[in-house]
């Protein structure tokens, strides 16, 4: 038997105690789902949803579960616990707005899985021009319930957005961003949309606007820019767009660094997605694949990103054929009527000679046609 001196045990026991006392606790990220009501021809309804989602995204540690479905408020109320659990959410919010006495009534309910008997249900009245006050009261209830600090929507933020929402929802104006940019340079809620629009259409002019957006970003976070994930994301976008225009290698490195800094502060699918695209530009396909996979894990129902990943995998179809089939099936689990995915999977099954699978999927496609 090996004998250890008493001093050895004393020293190691002290070290063990120190590790126990000072190892920080790691808590899983809470998730939230906002049950969207139909905002067709109702830009005020859209305003509530858009401001809630963006405020929670910018200023809380909550993970937002994306849900493209529209819900009926009264039906949700009776099933909110069941639907919250089905969506793997910790917290859920359902809302509706109604015209009431020359103003707007915001009705909402907040459900927390950890407090299933303590639902919050309120009805808050305001004039249309003061709807932001009602939204702030809803935000406060969400943040108080999830131990987050409330960052309120300002009257200036809200008022300047009304014309934007009207153009977007009612008039469906395709030139909306250029039209409103000069008036909304200081509005973070507008600029979130505009940045994504520009990132999908990068050229020299758009790169210069992205640069301007990123340089203005510290103004939105009260000098706490290094504590906000979106600040780093905007810098990542700025350097990415510069690289796309001028192909200076330091820009792609800076883009990757800033996207990673954003991810350290917020686990968000789009940050993984942007990293994947940055690594593609760097010709680092292993890391591109890794971050595409992380993006899909973070938002499993995002068909557009899955399709982009499939296009990436098709670069070496002989090597990645099985993975392509896997992700095509994933798309069809989300939307069984996706004709593009059905057509692609048929071609692959025909190529590998799996005629039984080919026949099964071909029947589905024929039924759709």
What can you see in these coordinates?
With 369 residues, the protein is α/β, with parallel strands linked by helices. It is built from 16 helices and 5 strands. Helix 8 runs antiparallel to helix 9 (229-246), helix 12 packs antiparallel against helix 13 and helix 15 (339-352) runs antiparallel to helix 16. 31% of the residues are buried.
The amount of beta strand, in percent, is: 5-15%
Radius of gyration: 24 Å
Number of strands: 5
Low-pLDDT residue intervals, each spanning 5 or more residues: 1-27
Structural class, by secondary structure, is alpha/beta
CATH topology of the largest domain: Rossmann fold
Helical content band: 55-70%
List keywords for this structure.
Serine Threonine Protein Phosphatase 5, Tetratricopeptide repeat, 3 domains, five-stranded mixed β-sheet, alpha/beta, globular, 16 helices
Write the SSE topology:
Layout: H1 6-22, E1 31-35, H2 43-59, E2 63-64, H3 73-86, E3 91-100, E4 103-112, E5 120-126, H4 131-146, H5 155-171, H6 176-184, H7 188-199, H8 204-216, H9 229-246, H10 249-265, H11 269-281, H12 285-298, H13 303-313, H14 317-334, H15 339-352, H16 355-368
Parallel strand pairs: 1-2, 1-3
Antiparallel strand pairs: 3-4, 4-5
Quick summary of this structure?
The chain has 369 residues and is an alpha/beta fold.
